[in-house]
Specification:
The chain has about 400 residues and is an alpha/beta fold. It is about 35% helix and about 15% strand. The protein has two domains: about 270 residues, Rossmann fold; about 90 residues, formyl-coa transferase, domain 3, CATH 3.30.1540.10.
């Protein structure tokens, strides 16, 4: 794609399934990398049949659960169980810069296609292995061989324990959160490895553990426990500031705010017309406000309950207090600010028609935006990749099809 794109000229092999690795390679594709997604002949990866689904007049189906993480990519079907399929994969590795893989622990090694093998073929290869609990033997733990999905990681990393009401059960959090956060961190690690390769000429192995990633994201709770011995859990404040959180307005909607420091506190008191709180012993300092947050929250809630969401936000912003409404997905897709930021992109899919997706949020002044391309049909690019990249002739490709290698 040339120098107009940050990753123009970088070729990525996606040995990927479900969410974490496909989303990681989507970030790379959004930056201009060529992403070749390897899939099982006949069936493809499991998310090809993930709802929601739309159907065209001819009965062809398009699944939103697949399209969301596989835009901008090429699909190559390849049987990695067969020796010929393994050989084709190794030939692809010669032309690759990056592999992103999230198969079950030990799966690629049993196939004879682990990093140790591929690194001998292409010493410049950056190999990113995404797993639930980590791959590197020198950091092996008691969970290393366990499979994992998103809700398991959220629970084990202490995220789920901080969601919900005090005394109630821990609910499942934001769907896909562990996968999506791990995907971004892994893409960042790939950037570091590619930058390092520019200096050393060598690739390397990236060990990205979803468990590690979410524990790192839980840094605030770990710090608070280290300093105070307190364990943050459902119903306990994640900050040592007040007022902070979500409050109900007159119209039944909710507004979020945080009075984060002593500079904002007098302004907040003026905004809610309670200047007396500036000298009240219960609220005169940040530590006292946090200690007496129930007292303060009652005052804030009473003020909010007499005003609509728009009145609350307008008043607080007038006094320089960061505040914003709790918005639904319906609010987001109609948000004039997001529209001005061009945060939505529409794709024309041959089956699904025109569909809207959230856009890559990164803005770079000298990088072009990759043109929108919908998710590929299963094996859509198999023939072109074999012909143009590996220089196979038509007869050889037909033989591979007959043997169901591709």
């Amino acid at each position: 794609m040339g120098i107009s794109y940050p990753l123009g000229g970088i070729r990525v092999i996606g040995l990927e399934q479900y969410v974490a690795a496909p989303d990681c390679t989507l970030w790379l594709a959004n930056a201009g990398a060529e992403v070749i997604k390897l899939e099982r002949p006949g069936s493809g990866e499991p998310r090809r049949n993930y709802l929601p689904v739309v159907e065209d007049a001819n009965g062809n189906k398009a699944f939103g659960g697949f399209m969301i993480y596989n835009r901008y990519k090429k699909s190559l079907t390849l049987d990695l169980q067969a020796e010929k399929g393994k050989q084709i994969y190794k030939e692809l590795i010669k032309h690759a810069d990056v592999v992103v893989e999230n198969f079950a622990p030990g799966a690629v090694d049993r196939l004879g296609l682990g990093y140790d093998v591929l690194q001998q073929i292409n010493p410049r290869l950056v190999y990113a292995a995404m797993s639930g609990f980590g791959r590197l033997k020198e950091f092996s733990g008691i969970y290393s061989q366990r499979p994992a999905f998103d809700p398991v990681i959220q629970a084990m990393a202490g995220i789920t324990d901080q969601i919900g009401e005090e005394g109630g059960p821990p609910p499942y959090g934001f769907p896909g959160f562990a996968d999506l956060y791990a995907s971004i961190v892994t893409a960042y690690a790939i950037m570091l490895a590619l930058f390092m390769r520019e200096k050393t000429g060598e690739g390397q192995f990236i060990d990205s553990s979803m468990y590690d990633n979410l524990v790192a994201l839980n840094a605030m709770g770990i710090m608070i426990h280290s300093f105070t011995g307190e364990i943050l859990t459902r119903g306990k404040s994640l900050t040592f500031q007040a007022p902070a959180g979500v409050y109900k307005a007159k119209d039944g909607s909710y507004v979020a705010l945080l009075v984060a420091n002593e500079l904002l506190w007098p302004k907040f008191c003026q905004a809610i017309q309670r200047e007396d709180l500036m000298e009240n012993p219960k609220t005169i300092t940040g530590s006292e406000r946090f200690k007496n947050k129930d007292f303060l929250n009652g005052i804030v809630q009473e003020w909010m309950a007499a005003r609509t969401k728009e009145e609350v936000v307008g008043t607080l912003l007038k006094y320089g207090i960061p505040a914003g409404p709790v918005q639904s997905i319906g609010d987001l897709v109609k948000c004039p600010h997001l529209m001005a930021r061009k945060m939505f992109v529409e794709f024309e899919d041959p089956i699904a028609g025109k569909r809207k997706f959230a856009r890559n949020p990164i803005r770079m002044s000298k990088a072009k935006e990759v043109p929108p391309v919908s998710a590929p049909r299963l094996g859509e690019h198999t023939e072109s990749i074999l012909k143009e990249l590996l220089k196979y002739d038509e007869q050889k490709i037909q033989e591979l099809r007959k043997e169901k290698i591709v």
